[in-house]
Amino acid sequence: GENVEQHPSTLSVQEGDSAVIKCTYSDSASNYFPWYKQELGKRPQLIIDIRSNVGEKKDQRIAVTLNKTAKHFSLHITETQPEDSAVYFCAAAVGGSGNTGKLIFGQGTTLQVKP
Amino acid sequence: DAGITQSPRHKVTETGTPVTLRCHQTENHRYMYWYRQDPGHGLRLIHYSYGVKDTDKGEVSDGYSVSRSKTEDFLLTLESATSSQTSVYFCAISGGVGELFFGEGSRLTVL
Fold it and tell me: A44 and B43: CB-CB below 8 Å?
């Protein structure tokens, strides 16, 4: 079945450094790739997403890149701040269902930003 | 935040008992989902709904059933709870452009 692999599982950086989280997916029909941030005890919330017709998208300090040939996408956070500390999940829409919300999630990355 | 609420937020029950979790939305969104979250597994899709009385299975549907008799309500039922179903359950809704809005989660402990 469809699968999303996410690495690393934990990531520790100094405040101001960059952080990169990588995901690979198995379903070549996937066309929507969101990233969610989950703070401790809270619900996951969308921080950025990308569709298969673009290769990169930026929103202030965060960016996502997509390589459809390699079935690989990444989250980049620059100038990290302590409030960026959270668990980050990548996801891929199942079977081209990019408008229905049916997503397969990666296992999550716990990001710790040290002051 | 999207208008989505889950109940109960916390529940402790015993093995073999039935449990129903409720998800209620005020956004009139067509799509509703139940995910479970466990350490090391991320979020896994249990069941989903594309509309009233239109539901389908997700990745980990064994031991779970769902019902959607109204647009605003999506119920998840554990017919006979087991310890492996101890988890945090998240309901989510989607308006059809891809983004999921999650509820606050329901923490279920099966003893």
Answer: yes
Q: How is residue B54 written in tokens?
A: 């239109």
d(CA B7, CA B43): 19
Rounded to whole angstroms, the Cα distance separating A100 from A102 reads 6
Task: Going from the first residue of chain B to its last (111 residues), give the mean pLDDT of each consecutive group of 10, the final group possibly shorter.
Answer: 89 97 95 93 92 92 96 97 97 84 96 96
Q: What is the DSSP letter of A99?
A: T
Hey, is the C-beta of A101 within 8 angstroms of any chain B C-beta? Answer: yes
CB contact at 8 A, B6 and B106: yes
Q: Out of A6, A43, A51, whose CB is closest to B102?
A: A43
Instruction: Tell me if A93 sits within 8 A of A31, measured CB to CB.
Output: yes
Q: How far is B91 from chain A (nearest CA, A)?
A: 10
Cβ <8 Å between A100 and B97: no
